[in-house]
Amino acid sequence: MFVRAQLPPGEAHRFHFHPKMEEILYILSGTAEQWVECEKKTMRAGDSLYLPAGIVHGTYNIGPDTLDFLAILSPAKSEGPVTIEVSDQAPWNSLRA
Q1: Distance from C-alpha of 87 to C-alpha of 85, rounded to nearest angstrom
Q2: How many angstroms separate the CA atoms of 81 and 5, rounded?
Q3: Nearest residue to 56 via CA among 77, 86, 31
Q4: Which of the residues 7, 14, 74, 97 has the least number of beta carbons within 10 Å of its own beta carbon?
Q5: To the nearest whole percent, how much of the chain has pLDDT over 90?
Q6: pLDDT for 77
Q7: How far apart are CA 83 and CA 53, in angstroms?
Q8: For the residues of 33-50, what is the DSSP string, one character each?
Q9: Is residue 78 over pLDDT 90?
Q10: Which domains does the chain carry?
């Protein structure tokens, strides 16, 4: 599954995981605060990241411009939910105080 996402400044795809899909993120432009479990890093154009299935992650636009990125998920089809949101659960709800 191939997704192009654009997040305006201050917006996010909050903490979530894909139970049966692995994911690659690739930043086209902008600046992301990228969380993988409880660790964060800054990603910019040209940076990429591999996420195994079941790993909690979140992508936050911390820059002044639109964050434009690609998310490639595999396999493209799986049973059950594609995404499970967890940003309202501990410890994820306290990491970005």
Answers
A1: 6
A2: 19
A3: 86
A4: 97
A5: 93
A6: 84
A7: 10
A8: EEEETTEEEEEETT-EEE
A9: no
A10: 2-94 (2.60.120.10)
Exposure string of 22-56, with b = 16+ CB inside 10 Å and e = fewer, is ebebebeebbbbbbbeeebeebeeeeebebeeeeb
Tokens of 19: 């139970």
Q: Alpha-carbon distance 28 to 45, whole Å?
A: 5
The burial of 3, by beta-carbon neighbours within 10 Å (0-12 exposed, 13-18 middle, 19 or more buried), is given as exposed
Amino acid letter for position 50? Y
Q: Are 56 and 11 in contact (CB under 8 A)?
A: no
The structure tokens listed for 27 are 């930043």
Find out whether 31 and 67 touch, Cβ atoms under 8 Å: yes
- Token digits of residue 55: 């790993």
In whole angstroms, give the CA distance from residue 84 to residue 18. Answer: 6
Q: How many CB atoms lie within 10 A of CB 12?
A: 17
